[in-house]
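Components:
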Amino acid sequence: MHKSGFFKTLLIGLSAGIGLCLAGALAAADTIKVGILHSLSGTMAISETTLKDTMRMLIEEQNKKGGILGKRLEAVVVDPASDWPLFAEKARELIEKEKVAVIFGCWTSVSRKSVLPVVEELNGLLFYPVQYEGEESSKNVFYTGATPNQQAIPAVDYLMNELDIERWVLVGTDYVYPRTTNKILEAYLKQKGVAKQDILIDKYTPFSHSDWQSTIANIKKFGSQGKKTAVVSTINGDANVSFYKELGNQGISAEDIPVVAFSVGEEELSGIDTKPLVGHLAAWNYFMSVEDPANEAFIQSWHDFIGDDERVTNDPMEAHYIGFNLWVRAVEKAGSTDTDKVVAAIVGLETPNLTGGTSVMLKNHHVTKPVLIGEIQDDGQFEVVWRTGTEIPGDAWSDFLPGSKDIVADWTQPIFCGNYNTKTKTKAKACLER
Amino acid sequence: MFRGYLSMRAVALGRGPLVAAGFLCVLILATLVPRPAGARTIGYEEALGRLSDRSFRVKAAAIEAIATGGDERARSLLEGLLKGEVFYRKSDRRILYARKSQTGYRIRDASNGADLGEVGKREIKKVGLNNRLRRQLRGALAGMALNDPDPRVRRAAVREMMGDGKAAVRLRARLPLEQDEGVRADLGLAIALDDLHAATANTRLAAIATLGASLEPEVHNRLAAMAEADPDPAVTAAARAALFGIELRRTLNAWAETLFFGLSLGSVLVLAAIGLAITFGVMGVINMAHGELVMLGAYTTYLVQQAMPDAIGYSLLVAVPAAFVVSGLFGVAIERLVIRFLYGRPLETLLATFGISLMLQQLVRTTISAQNVAVENPAWMSGSLRINPALALTYNRLYIFLFAILVFLGLLLILKRTTLGLQVRAVSQNRAMARAMGIRSARVDMLTFGLGAGTAGVAGVALSQLTNVGPNMGQAYIIDSFMVVVFGGVGNLWGTFIGGLTLGIANKFMEPWAGAVLAKILVLIFIILFIQRRPRGLFPQRGRAVE
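Structure:
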């Protein structure tokens, strides 16, 4: 049964390979196509356009070094226009029509979820560069952004141990990432011995929410009961601006009640008035202000490429840097851009990151990353106030959610499954059907 | 008497070891702290040099040395640090004051004030701070400000130091020297707060009496702890009584605060809807581009601020008439080019104005930017008006509330007391009769629409101070605006005003338990039910004009 499946795949692979070779011989035989799937219009364009440019820069630099396997890289840019179903269509177009070897793209979790079935069906490759809620692992997707244990949990540890925080307010925008992250954080805090009445999960707010009066008044009341209080914010997008403004206007400074945010980075701070934000915290795996030769070189080449010294770099850009370099290494190791060969080759490969360490691709298709806590300065940059000593491995399935505690993802033989229960030693249905 | 003595003994016993331990701590600290800094107190120059260190611990020690050293340059240096004006040069790690200039940064030596010329952005680096250092700086500056000639500065310093056990000694020392009544009162409160920790029950009782019904959160927390666990029953009873008064006042203040939040949200709704109350309410035009006219007003504010970057404080005063003119002209153009051909055909008007709204959005996207733009808040719009420690009204909301009333009264005046207003009402009530009386109804239509559009632009100026200014911002207000106008009663400005405020207050009273999303849904359901009962809204038009 398995054998015939294998032969079938082999046969299809061979014929596809021959077809490709023929097509390739007719067209330019010496390029490898790299798909870039980032919104260039709509609400997410603000953040995603930068990532498109980052990818173009990385590809250009790789071509200067002679490409990969003697072939030049060619960027294929499409615009999914912040429209989630369109992400799936564009991904299909990239793989089926453009025959790209790999796709770098997506920002929001919902766009990734929409692309996921397409890359799995067509056996493509997707590198996803943004921090997300976890609880997922696919053979065809590589997650180079942070999981909650690489961002949220260390941030809470920092607040608890260094700032002696005893009371917690969790606020967030109403969608899957904040809800899941807050669920994990709540479980984690309770496990650390924080009493129930010392955790306030505020009502979730819509995107672009601008009237924060009641929320802030509530935080103020909750925080003035004598115990040191902090706010953990998973507010996403431009709602942050009015949130911090209201915080400042109601007289809450970072010294009284610090806010640690997981979605506020250099890009979001550029172009807004940062005075009310000074001293508040953000947790990321990279800050532009990190003093490291690799980072300085990266910033320099970014400024040269974009032609503007004022442009900032941020965490998802570093994630693409890591993801792209890992993919290049994997292709060189495998000697081919074939998905299955790259998937087999990439696990265990490592590449230097921009903060002076090394990132390793793990069995669960996540990477190791250091966690840095930065305080916002009035020039829109972050001052690093704390960092983990070593790189933290990304955990696909959180240890703090009841359903996912025993589940691991392991894309090496013999398990080769993204959802394997270590207690019952069973694979999820999706793995068995494969 | 005897019982009192016993409990005092208990206090003394209970506190004895603590006090001793505390004393020991102080002794140890006193002997230990200066040691790591080099076995001697370091001078100003040396401490200055250490500010370029990367470790926050070293910086904290340096700031401590500067603050306690008594050097006259210390205050301006610490203030500079807090404002983020202190840098160091990467080449020789010299500490500098730096200010942004045309080409890069203008730098000045921090130790002797010598002008060192201009440097590029990459040659210097800011002395980074964290929250701990910022608090330390604020505390040190407050200590210095205690002797400031300006009583307001002294008062702020006392408030800063309130509740800080270590600072109480300095406050006590200041009290006999203080002349200003206001500062004396605050000093008395701060000292009484410290006295709550006193060992003798009588001092504690006196402190409770002094604090009375103070709404400072520290007082509440301390009293709550005492009401539970003070060893002296008299003190416990006094604390309980004081706490009851405080709780009552806090509850009242919380209600007042929610009411203010509601009025503020309501005034935003009124502002957004009042232009529509004219175009839709009076003229009957379903104007889907109304939100975009608001957006144009907000962008006008942005452009005005770009044109006068050195006078942000006055920019809003310029922006209000500018936005009125810009949005008004757009309104007139829309009416002349599109709407006048579609009077009496509401469905076509709806579709046409929806198309216009998309065009206006795209216009802004291509000419300015697809991203949000940063509209600055003038200094007088930031911060809050402190009524008492439990109630503070934010200035931006307060001004916008007053502004909404002003705009409403202005419009009311125009419609009720001017010739244009008379003509507008005449045309809207009976077009044929008005024309027969010699009113040029086409001109009146144009001006009315322009007035409504201009008012929308003015609302945009106010909203730019509260929300993000981007091409899509109008979309967020269009539904709310129609909701308010329909709820208030079509064709009635008073209806829009009262309706908007009512909805705002209802929303805010529901929000604490329902959340922002659910509160809005509940409000919508309420309006649907209300319109079922009273289809013409709160203040329906009466008489023949309705037909």
